[in-house]
Amino acid sequence: MAAEFELTDEMRAAVGVESEPWPVEITSTSVRAFARGVGYTDPKYYDDAAAAAAGYDALPAPPCYLGTPVWIPGKSDPTFSGPRNTGPSVRHGLRGLLDGGTEVVYERPLKAGDKLFMTSKIADLEVKESKGLGKMLVVTSEQTFTEQDSGEVVMRTFAQAIYY
Amino acid sequence: MPNFADITVGDPLPTLTKAPNRAQLVLYCAGSGDFNPLHWDQSFEQARQIGDNIVHGRMKWSTLGQVVADWVGDSGWVKSVSCQYRGMDMQGAEWQAKGVVTAKREENGLKLVDVDVWTENADGQKTTPGKAVVVLND
C-alpha cells in the first residue's frame, strides 16, 4: 500500500511501445484443457466427432480462451506462462496486484489448429486513490493476436491491472 | 437455439450455477496457464490474509463467456466478452452466472445481439459485471 505514488517520465515512456511477437497456439489438447478448467459439458469442445456433427472442422475454442503461449524455460513467466522481457515494463515498486477487468474482441471464432503471434503494449497508465488501498497504479494493456501465416488480426484483448 | 428475429430485449439467458472448489481451480490453472498460488495454495500469504483461496477473476470472466456460448450454441459465435472484477469469490462458494439481452442490431451485414452478463454471489452481489456481443447466423 502506497501513501504517495507518482508517474515518472520513464513510466510514461513505456506507454504505446509494442512488444516483440510471441507464438501462441490453439490445439485440440489445449482446447480440452481450457474447456475442462471452466467446466464446459458440451462435447463439441472435447470430441472431434461431436464437433464435426455440430458443423465445425476442428474443436472450437471457447470464448475467453486466449490460446496457449509457447512455453520456453527461462523466457516464459513461471507463474503466468506468458513471455517475459519481450517489451517495456513499468518499474513501479508496488507489491500488491489486483485484476481490474478483462475484455476480448474476436474478428472470427478461433479453433484448434490456429497458430498466432501475440504482441502487447501498455495502452494507458493512471494513478487512482482508494480508501482501502491508498494510491494505486492502474495499468491498461492491450494484446493483439495475428495469424502467423497471413498477419491478419483475429483477436484483441484489453486488461486492467491494479498495483497498490 | 436463438434466432435473430425471435430475440427480444429483456430475454434472459440460461443461468449457470457454479461452486468451483480448489481442485477445479487447479484445472483452470492448467487450462489457462495462470498458476498464481492465490488460487491453489492455502499457505500463500495473500490467501492466508484473505482466509482462503479465491476464484480466478478470469475464470468468472470465462464463465460469463460460457453463459453466452451455451446460449448461442451452434447458431452463431461470440464476438466479445468484457467484465470488471468488483468482488472476490472464495473457492467452494456457490455463485451464479447470468445474462440478459439488452439490444439487437445489424452492422456491416452481421446480426449482432448485445447482452449484459454478470456473476452473482449468495448475497445477490454482482461480483463480476460485464457485457458480451454475439453474432447470429440467422
Can you tell me about this structure?
The complex is a heterodimer of chains A (164) and B (138). Chain A has a domain at 9-24 and 67-163: Thiol Ester Dehydrase, Chain A. Chain A has 3 helices and 6 strands; from the N terminus they run αβααβββββ. Chain A has helices spanning 9-13, 28-38, 48-53; strands at residues 22-25, 68-69, 97-106, 115-130, 134-147, 153-163. In chain A, strand 5 (134-147) and strand 6 (153-163) form a beta hairpin. Chain A is elongated and about 60 Å long. With 138 residues, chain B is of the alpha+beta class. Chain B has a single domain (4-136), classed as Hotdog Thioesterase (Thiol Ester Dehydrase, Chain A), CATH 3.10.129. Chain B contains 3 helices and 5 strands. A 5-stranded antiparallel beta sheet of chain B has the order 1-3-4-5-2, with helices on one face. Chains A and B meet through helix 2, strand 2 and strand 3 of A and helix 1, helix 3 and strand 2 of B.
Topology of helices and strands:
The complex is a heterodimer of chains A (164) and B (138).
Chain A: H1 9-13, E1 22-25, H2 28-38, H3 48-53, E2 68-69, E3 97-106, E4 115-130, E5 134-147, E6 153-163
Antiparallel strand pairs in A: 1-2, 1-4, 3-6, 4-5, 5-6
Chain B: E1 12-18, H1 22-32, H2 45-50, H3 57-72, E2 76-84, E3 95-107, E4 110-121, E5 126-136
Antiparallel strand pairs in B: 1-3, 2-5, 3-4, 4-5
CATH structural fold name of chain B: Thiol Ester Dehydrase, Chain A
Number of helices of chain B: 3
> What's the CATH first level of the domain at 9-24 and 67-163 in chain A?
Alpha Beta
Strand order in the sheet with the most strands of chain B:
1-3-4-5-2
Q: Tell me which protein chains meet in the greatest interface and how many residues each side has.
A: A-B, 38 and 37 residues
The coarse overall form of chain B would be elongated
N-to-C series of helices and strands of chain A: HEHHEEEEE
Topology, number of strands of chain A: 6
On the 0-100 scale, what is the average pLDDT of chain A?
Answer: 94
Structural class of chain A comes to mainly beta
What is the correct CATH architecture of chain B? Roll
Provide the succession of SSEs of chain B. Answer: EHHHEEEE
